[in-house]
C-alpha cells in the first residue's frame, strides 16, 4: 500500500498525542509511508463522534489505531465511525475482538493446528472459586497493559476472598481511564531459563508478512529462536497481530499471548524507530488497491409485493427503486419463495455512503457485467486481499470478484443465470 494513516489519541488540547504514545508518534512520522493523525478518543468511544486534529493527505489510504488497548465494544464504535467516513481500518471489530483471546490463534491463523496455548482467564471475569478450580497448581498473574515483561509473579491457589477483591479493584487503575480489564490469570508452566531469564519472543505479523521476531524477556543473545517453521505457519491474512511464544523447560514451545498489533506494546529493548521501520517495510510490501475490478451488477426492482396482504412497496427499506448495487459471489439458498439471498454493496436512500448487506434475490433485476472504479467500493471488495480477517457470518466476510478473464466469464454466466431463473420476472410491473 502507498500510505497508512495512523490514528493517535490526542491530549486535552488536541495539539499533541497523549504522553505515553508521544515517542510512537514521533517515530512513525519519520517514515513517509505513515501519516500520523491525532484524534479525540474520548469523543469517539463515548460521544460517537470522530474528531480529527488535522487533514488527511490521502483520503483513500487505510487507517490503523495506535493507542491504549480498548474493550471490544469501544473499538467497534471507533471502527464504525471510521467506516462511516468511507475509510478502511486495517482490523475490523471482529478481528480486534478475536485477536484478544489467544486460544483463538490455532483456529483463526493456522488450519488444523493442535492446541498449543497456555490456559488463561480474565481476573474479574471469573469468580475466585472458578479460578481456584481452573488453576489448582497456582497461576501466573499477567498484566496486559504493562511493557514487557508482563508477568507479575506466581500466585498460589486457593486464593481468598480479600485477595480477589483487592486485585479486582486494581482494574479501576488501568491506564487511560479504565478502557479495558488488564489482569489475566494464566496457567503456571515451568519455563526454561538462561542466566535466570526466561526465553520469551514476540512475533509480529502484518498482512501475511512476518514483520519481526524479537526477544522479549531480557534473555542472553545466545538463547535459541523459535523454530522457523513455527514462525512461518502463523502467517495469515489477518491485518496486524502479535503472538508471544515461550520456551518450556523441556525445550518445546508454547504461545502465551495473542493481541491485536494496533495496541500491543513494542518488544522489550526494541526502539520506537526500529518498531516503525519494520512495520513500514511490511506496509510498503502489502498489496495495493487495484485500479478496477469486474463485478456482477444489478438494479433494485421498482415495485414488489410483500406481506400476507400483498401490499406494494417501492424499492426496499435501504435502497430506492432502480438503485444500482454490486453483487458478490455469495448466494444463500432458502426454502422460501424468494430466490435466496445475495450480498450487495450499494448507496442507501438519501445517503452518500456505501453499505454492505444481505439482500433477497427477488428484489434485484437486470444483472450484468460492469467494471468498478469507485475507490470506496474497491476498498470494501478487496479488504481480504489487503489484510482483512474473515470471522463470523456477516456480509463483510464475503468474497468478491477480481479483474481476470476468469472472473469476467464467471460473472457473465452468473448474470445469464440470474436473468433467466424462476425469480427473474416476478417483480410487479
TrEMBL record:
Q: Which Pfam families match?
A: R2K_3
Which parts of the sequence belong to the ATP-grasp domain?
172-264
Taxonomy of origin reads: Bacteria, Bacillati, Actinomycetota, Actinomycetes, Bifidobacteriales
What is the protein's given name?
ATP-grasp domain-containing protein
Amino acid at each position: 500500500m502507498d500510505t497508512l494513516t495512523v490514528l493517535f489519541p490526542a491530549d486535552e488540547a488536541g495539539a499533541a498525542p497523549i504522553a505515553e504514545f508521544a515517542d510512537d508518534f514521533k517515530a512513525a512520522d519519520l517514515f513517509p509511508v505513515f501519516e500520523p493523525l491525532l484524534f479525540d478518543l474520548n469523543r469517539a468511544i463515548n460521544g460517537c463522534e470522530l474528531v480529527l486534529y488535522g487533514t488527511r493527505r490521502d483520503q483513500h489510504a487505510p487507517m490503523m489505531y495506535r493507542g491504549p488497548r480498548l474493550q471490544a465494544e469501544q473499538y467497534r464504535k471507533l471502527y464504525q465511525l471510521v467506516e462511516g467516513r468511507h475509510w478502511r481500518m486495517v482490523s475490523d471489530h471482529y478481528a480486534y475482538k478475536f485477536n484478544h483471546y489467544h486460544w483463538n490463534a490455532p483456529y483463526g491463523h493456522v488450519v488444523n493446528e493442535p492446541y498449543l496455548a497456555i490456559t488463561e482467564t480474565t481476573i474479574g471475569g471469573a469468580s475466585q472459586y472458578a479460578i481456584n478450580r481452573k488453576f489448582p497448581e497456582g497461576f501466573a498473574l499477567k498484566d496486559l497493559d504493562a511493557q514487557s515483561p508482563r508477568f507479575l509473579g506466581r500466585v498460589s491457589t486457593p486464593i481468598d476472598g480479600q485477595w480477589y477483591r483487592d486485585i479486582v479493584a486494581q482494574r479501576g487503575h488501568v491506564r487511560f481511564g479504565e478502557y479495558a480489564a488488564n489482569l489475566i490469570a494464566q496457567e503456571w508452566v515451568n519455563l526454561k531459563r538462561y542466566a535466570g531469564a526466561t526465553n520469551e519472543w514476540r512475533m509480529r505479523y502484518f498482512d501475511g508478512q512476518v514483520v519481526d521476531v524479537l526477544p522479549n524477556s531480557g534473555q542472553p543473545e545466545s538463547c535459541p529462536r523459535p523454530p522457523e517453521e513455527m514462525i512461518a505457519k502463523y502467517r495469515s491474512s489477518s491485518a496486524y497481530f502479535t503472538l508471544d511464544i515461550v520456551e518450556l523447560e523441556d525445550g518445546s514451545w508454547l504461545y502465551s499471548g495473542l493481541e491485536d498489533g494496533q495496541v500491543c506494546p513494542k518488544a522489550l529493548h526494541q526502539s520506537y524507530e526500529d518498531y516503525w521501520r519494520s512495520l513500514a517495510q511490511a506496509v510498503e510490501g502489502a498489496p495495493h488497491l487495484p485500479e478496477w475490478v469486474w463485478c456482477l451488477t444489478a438494479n433494485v426492482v421498482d415495485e414488489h409485493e410483500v406481506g400476507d396482504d400483498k401490499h406494494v412497496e417501492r424499492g426496499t427499506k435501504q435502497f430506492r427503486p432502480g438503485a444500482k448495487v454490486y453483487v458478490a459471489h455469495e448466494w444463500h439458498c432458502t426454502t422460501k419463495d424468494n430466490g435466496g439471498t445475495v450480498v450487495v454493496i450499494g448507496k442507501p436512500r438519501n445517503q452518500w455512503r456505501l453499505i454492505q448487506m444481505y439482500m433477497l434475490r427477488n428484489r434485484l433485476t437486470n444483472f450484468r457485467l460492469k467494471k468498478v472504479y469507485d475507490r470506496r467500493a474497491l476498498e470494501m471488495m478487496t479488504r481480504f486481499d489487503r489484510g482483512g480477517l474473515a470471522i463470523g457470518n456477516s456480509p463483510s466476510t464475503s468474497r468478491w470478484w477480481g479483474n481476470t478473464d476468469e472472473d469476467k466469464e464467471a460473472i457473465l454466466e452468473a448474470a445469464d443465470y440470474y436473468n433467466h431463473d424462476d425469480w427473474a420476472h416476478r417483480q410487479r410491473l
